[in-house]
Structures are given as structure tokens and as C-alpha cells.
Amino acid sequence: TFPQRIFSGIQPSGGLTLGNYLGALKRFVEKQDEGIETIYCLVDLHAITVWQDPERLRQQTREAAAAFIAAGIDPDRSILFNQSQVTGHAELAWIFNCVARIGWMYRMTQFKDKTAGKNAENSSLGLLAYPSLMAADILLYKATHVPVGEDQKQHLELARDIAAKFNHDYGRTFFPITEPVIEGAGTRVMSLTDGTKKMSKSDPSDNSRINLTDDADAIAKKIRRAKTDSEPLPESAEGLKDRPDARNLINIYAGLSGLSVDQVVTEFAGAQFGTFKPKLADLAVAKLSPITTEMNRLMKDPAEIDRILGKGADRADAIARPVIDETKDIVGM
Ligand code: ADP
Ligand code: NA
Question: Where is this motif: 'HIGH' region (predicted)?
Fold first, then answer.
């Protein structure tokens, strides 16, 4: 058996959203505060699977690091670092490219979504192989648990398949079969302009998401304009079933407040959106503006952020190096 260790990552491919906060960052902090060993990574190697402007990538990597720290990640307790600074990720990913099968990659819904309406043959090879690198990220630390949003569940299953095939092919239980940790409200935050699509930093419409860098006015305005239907809020959670936009706003309220969806529904049973939305906006501003303020403060000293990430990379490498060395030995290198 493997000692409990948490690993997760976020792409520094754009400003972080409320979806990243509720689905990832907030959970990362909870795991750290439970006293579990936590390793958090800014996955810049994943970010370049689609074109990134080099200067912006550098800037967004620092901004994501600032968001982690502002949200409550303590870089002394958790390991916080940048993927490309620990060479074991790319090394193990190559070995996993030779363990995983091409057909596994073509089945991934994220690959299908990201190439929908485009010529898939013309996307980067990295975009197709992305889940293999993600498996390497996790297994390089023999992580047992990965907190993620719903959207990453299929990639996690693939990481489990890769670990199992490696263990089988080389006849030993070397890698753990990692468990996803997907629980509670906020694991699937949807777009504010279309409750059937996930909120994403890569959505072309800025009104579809709340960014962690949005000020109080922007947050209030986006919530006021969020898509809804004309019915009042239902008396029970059942009544949210065919109302994706209403369900999303209730879900966001639950995620931010720490209440259950049922509790929020009870509190606002029969209310109009005109009553509910300002309450939601106040809550979002109260929870997010201290994070935004702290991010802005941290971003004034990029050298300090680089120093923190460098120290995190050294600590990550100390765990990763023996694992990659042993993996190569197992493979015959
Ligand atoms: P994005 O999808 O915004 O590009 P990433 O792929 O970097 O974000 O995902 C980082 C983390 O944030 C993952 O754990 C992912 O599951 C989570 N996440 C992203 N978007 C959402 C969302 N809309 N709701 C809940 N969690 C999300
Ligand atoms: Na994602």
C-alpha cells in the first residue's frame, strides 16, 4: 500500500475562474488544512498543447501561483511549483506514451471537445497525448488521491489504466491506482450565459465566467446579467432538474457559502431571481475580493513568486527523482 499523498494541477493558460476556485483551489486548501501531504502544480507543459504567447505564459504562471497563495495555499506546508521546472514529468510522460494506446487518447471527450469543428489532424500531438502527461504528473509522486472537478474524471480513469498497464507489463505493483476526489457543490460550475456548458477560462465570452481578477462591480454585473428563466426558485431541489441556469446559480451559492444545495433551496424557496441574484453577488464579492486583493499584492513582487516556485520545484524534484530513476531501471534503462 501507498502512503496518502495528494497531487493536483491547474493550467496557467489564462486567468483563473470561479470554476477553478470552487472545483479546485478551495478543495486544495481544504486538503492541505486536513494535514495531508499536498503537492500542487502549475502545469505549463499542458498549457502549450495549444499556442501560448511566451510572455503571457510567464505572466499567467506567476498569476496562477499568486491565486493559489491568495486562496490559502501555504507554500511551506504544500509543495507549490511549476511543472516544466521538474524534468521528471516529461521523462515519465514519454515512458507512458509507450505504455498507453493511441485509441485510449482518441476516446477522451476533452480532446473531442477541443477539436470539435476543427481539423483534428491539425491539432498538436501534445493535445492528443495530454492525458499521458497528466498520468505522469500524478504518478511521478505516487499520489493516491487527486482532487479535481467533474470534467477531469475521464482523464483520471485513464491515469489509472496507464498505472495498471505499467504494473502489469513489468510485473510489479510499482504505481498506485489513484482515486479521484470529486465531492460536494461546485465540482461542476457552469457558464453564466449558458448553463449547459462548463465555465471555462477559454470561453470567448468574458460574461460567461467570473475571473478571480474581477472587481466587485464586474462580479455584481455578471451575476445580474446571468441567464435565468422566468420562474421563481423552486421549493425543493427536485425542481431544479430541468433548469440548468437556476441550478448553476444555486450550486454556486452552495459552493461559496459551504451550505448544501438543499439548504440553499430551502433558504430561497419561492424567491424571485431579482431577490436571489443580489444575495449571490454579495456572497461572491465577500468570498472573492479578499483573494483578488491579496493576488494583486503578491503580483507586485514577481521575483518573490519565482523564488517560492523555485523552492517548490526543488522539493518536488527530491520526491520525483528516485521515482523516475527506479522507473527507468524497471524499464531496462
Ligand atoms: P480550465 O478547464 O479552466 O482550463 P484546468 O483544465 O486547468 O481549467 O483545470 C484546473 C482544475 O479546475 C481542474 O481540477 C478542473 O476540474 C477544475 N475546473 C475547471 N473548470 C471547472 C468548472 N467549471 N467547475 C468545476 N471545476 C472546474
Ligand atoms: Na479542464
Answer: 12-20
DSSP structure string for 18-35: HHHIIIIIHHHHHHHHTT
Ligand 1 in reach of 38 Cβ (< 6 A) = no
**305: Cβ below 6 Å to ligand 1?**
no
Instruction: Say yes or no: ipTM exceeds 0.90.
Output: yes
Provide the annotated active-site residues.
114, 198, 201
* Fold held by 206-296: Tyrosyl-Transfer RNA Synthetase (1.10.240)
Atom of ligand 1 nearest to the CA of 20: 12
Prediction pTM value: 0.94
The answer to whether the CB of 20 is under 6 A from ligand 1 is yes
Q: Quote the Cα angle for 297-60-288, to 5°.
A: 50
CA dist 24 and 67 (Å) reads 12
Domain ranges of the chain: 5-182+301-331, 206-296
**CATH class belonging to 5-182+301-331:** alpha beta
